[in-house]
Amino acid sequence: MVLSRYGIEPQQLYSITSDNGANMLAMSRQIEEEIQDSLEDLNNTEEQVEESDIIFSSADGQEMLDLVESLEFERENIAQPTVTAMPRINISPKPKRKRQQWDPENMKLAVQAVQTMAMGYKKAVKMFSVPRTTLRRLAKCTGESIDSVVNRPLGRKCVLPPEIEKELVAYLLFM
After folding, report:
1. What is the pLDDT of residue 174?
2. Which of 175, 108, 121 is nearest to 147 (CA)?
3. Which of 75, 98, 131, 147 has CA 20 to 30 A from 89's CA?
4. What is the number of helices (H) and of strands (E) in the chain?
5. What H or E segment, with its residue span, contains residue 137?
6. Are 79 and 11 in contact (CB under 8 A)?
7. Cα separation, 153 vs 173, whole angstroms
8. What is the percent of the chain where pLDDT is above 70?
9. Read out DSSP for 58-83?
10. What is residue 67's predicted lDDT score, i.e. its pLDDT?
11. Complete DSSP assignment for 21-62
């Protein structure tokens, strides 16, 4: 029905790729049923030909052989559809970029230049080859020393002080 509506022969159908939409899966099942019906019709026609008791002349016999051969050819060339759903996979996020690839000495000089207003952000970024957003973030920390700001570890701040954390680790390893 679907194939004939659009003038598509079963032999022309190679594959159906879908995003598992209900309408595409339903169409695939319907096409599969149509092809199965076509195969059954071919088998029934072939059985009728084989079970026939009619005696043919040699010319009719040759036509009948040609018909049987064409039916076998059609059966071989009708693709057996397989309806398989596309696998559900999680698309992983972009690979993480390497972080903190800038030179700490250049960052110290850039932060110092911006904080003392010797130059602006754009000029400091170009001159010292450091990331603009990182420079802005670090230049805002005016209450701390430049060394502590630049050498601050990445990630969240620890909830527990280092002494308590070491005690906790030792206790957990002891258990």
Report:
1. 84
2. 108
3. 98
4. 8, 0
5. helix 132-139
6. yes
7. 25
8. 60
9. HHHHHHHHHHHHHHHHHHHHS-----
10. 66
11. -HHHHHHHHHHHHHHHHHHHHHHHHHHHHHH------HHHHH
Residue 56, token pair as written in the block? 């043919």
What is the predicted pLDDT for the residue at 53? Answer: 47
Q: What is the pLDDT of residues 7-31, one digit of tens each?
A: 777 666 666 666 667 776 777 777 7
Q: Give the residue-averaged pLDDT of 147-156.
A: 83
Q: How far apart are CA 65 and CA 59, in angstroms?
A: 10
Measure the CA–CA gap between 115 and 146, rounded to whole angstroms.
10
CB atoms under 10 Å from CB of 70, counted, come to 10
User: What's the mean pLDDT in 108-118?
Assistant: 92
CA 59 to chain centre: 60
- Name the residue among 101, 154, 96, 153 with its Cα closest to residue 130: 101
Structure tokens at 132: 């603009």
Token pair for residue 133? Answer: 């957003």
Please say if the pLDDT value at position 47 is more than 80. no
Q: How far is CA 148 from CA 134, 135, 143, 168, 173, in A?
A: 14, 14, 11, 26, 32
- CA-to-CA separations, 137 to 110, 140, 150, in angstroms, rounded: 12, 6, 10
CB of 99 within 8 A of CB of 138? no
